[in-house]
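Read as amino acids, tokens; as here:

___
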Amino acid sequence: MAFGNSHGAMNDKDLFLGYIKAYNAKDVSGMLTFFDEDCVLETISAGKVTVHTKGKAELEALARKSADAFASREQKVISLTQRQERVVAEIDYLAVLRVDLTHDLKAGSELKLRGISVCEFSGGRIVRLSDYS
């Protein structure tokens, strides 16, 4: 399911939800249409940055590797708040690993997390996505 390059008059909440829909479908090309060329993605876990990408090429490489690592994955939006060009979402995350990631995280393991995603927009594109868990 490709979303094309233009998202028309979508507001920031709709853009974020479109990204989540593509993410859940493991549609990397669709996900990327929501991001600016100079985007930043970061994951912060227990106060430490565990993932950081700069630019769409780095994001694409990570997204393709991540999509392949999971048999299934879903981000479920619990709440969504928009302020100016920023969306803050409370997310329940559920995934099942397809591959071994660490000694403790093996193929078939289920991951359940609750976190916060902070998404910043400019020009109808995501310029920064920070996921906190």
Remarks:
- The longest helix spans residues 56-69.
- The radius of gyration is 14 Å.
- Confidence is low (pLDDT under 50) at residues 1-5.
- The chain has one domain: 12-132.
